[in-house]
Input
Amino acid sequence: MAKIMNRYNGEVIVEGDELMRDLAIKNKKSLLDADLRGIDLSVSNFDRSNFESADFGGSDLKYADFRDSNLKNSNLSNVDAENSFFDRTRLRAASIENSNFDSSSFADSDLRYAKIRNCTFEYTNFRGADLRGIGIMGLDLRTAYLSGAKIEFYGFPSIRSLSFINLGSLSDFLTLELMRRDAYAHPHPERFDEWAAEGNNCPYRGEERFWYFSEKAFLWKPGDPQMTDRDLIKAICEEKGWKLDY
Output
C-alpha cells in the first residue's frame, strides 16, 4: 500500500492501493508538508494543488503541470523538471538547487526570496514572474525569457552579471551600444559591416557572445562604445524596470 508521509513528523497524510504518482494526483489539494522525495511524478497533472512545504527532492518532474498551485516553502532541489509548467504558481521562499528546469515555464509566478542555486534554465519562460530577492546575480539566464519579470539587484551588479541575463529587446540607443561593444571585442569586427550591408552571415556565428539581446542589423554604425560601464548598467536596469538597491 502506498503512503505519503508528513516530511516533518512522519505521520501518514494519505494512503491507498494506487501508485504513488496516482495517490499524489488524487490528493493534490491537501499535500501540505508531504514527503515526495525520489518519486516519478513526470507527466502528472498537479494544477491548482497545495504542496506548501512539500519535499520533492530528487524526484522526476519532467512535463509535470503545477499551474496555479501553492508550492510556497517547498523543496525542489535535485529534481529534473524539464518542460514542466509552473505558471502562476506560488514558490515564495522555495528551495531550488541543483535542478534542471530547461524549457520549463514560470510565467507570472511568485518566486520571491526562493533559494535558487546551480540550476539550469535554458529557454525557460519567466515572463511576468516576480524574481525579487532570489540573488539573480548568480544565475545563468542568457537564453531565458524575462519580458515583464520583476528583478531587483541587492548591490550594484557588474557587467558580467548583466551579461548572464537575456536582455531581450532594448531601445535603439542601447542596442547599438551593445553591438558596438560586441564588435569591439570580436576577432573579426568587419563582419558587422558585412552583416549590416548584406543582411546575412551573422557576426556572432561561431563566436561566443558576451551580451544576449535582440540585435538589429539596420541600426549598425561603426564606432566605439560611448558609455561607461556604470552608466550602461544603470541605463539597462532603468529601461527594463529592474530595481537597483545600492
The domain at 32-150 is CATH 2.160.20.80 (Pectate Lyase C-like). The chain has two domains: 32-150, 172-245. The mean pLDDT is 95.
